[in-house]
Amino acid sequence: MTLTLAKEAARQARLGCGIMTPAEAADYIGSTEGTLRWMRCKGKGPPFEKDGGRYFYRIEDLDAYRAGRAG
């Protein structure tokens, strides 16, 4: 399996579990990865989880965050 295929398989597995990386989450909510980083530092924005040095976002939390911003 090539590295690209392995990365895509990992991405599909994460999405299947309802988890997104900061880059994926930013695209999902119409923001940038830098803005998500800033919001994490300020204690704002959608809830996130940290595993080691990596941050992850749950799709249901992103949906709730988007719904809250809409109204």
Outline the structure in words:
The protein is of the alpha+beta class and 71 residues long. It has a single domain, classed as Multidrug-efflux Transporter Regulator, Chain: A, Domain 2 (Orthogonal Bundle), CATH 1.10.1660.10. 62% of the residues lie in helices and 14% in strands. It is built from 4 helices and 3 strands. The chain has a 3-stranded antiparallel sheet. Helix 2 crosses helix 3 (33-42). The protein starts with a helix and ends with a helix. The model has no long low-confidence stretch (mean pLDDT 91).
What is this structure's SSE topology?
Elements: H1 3-16, E1 19-20, H2 22-29, H3 33-42, E2 49-51, E3 54-58, H4 59-70
Antiparallel strand pairs: 1-3, 2-3
Helix pairs in contact: 2-3
User: Sheet bearing the most strands, described?
Assistant: 3 strands, antiparallel
The neighbouring-strand order within the major sheet is 1-3-2
Shape category: globular
Instruction: Bin the strand percentage.
Output: 5-15%
Instruction: Give the structural class.
Output: alpha+beta
CATH class: Mainly Alpha
Q: Output the number of helix runs.
A: 4
CATH hierarchy: architecture: Orthogonal Bundle
Query: Can you tell me the number of structural domains?
Result: 1
Radius of gyration: 13 Å
Spell the H/E element sequence.
Answer: HEHHEEH
Q: Ends: how far apart?
A: 45 Å
How many strands? 3
